[in-house]
Amino acid sequence: MIQISKSKHTSLTLVIDGQTVVVSFRPSSMEGYRLAMSVIKKYQDLSKTRQDFGDDMTQEQAMQVMDASLGLIESFRSAVAEIVGKDQYDASLKPVEEDIPFTAWIEIMSEIIRGYSAFFESAVSTEGERS
Question: Among candidates 25, 128, 8, which has minimal Cα distance to 80?
Answer without folding.
Answer: 25
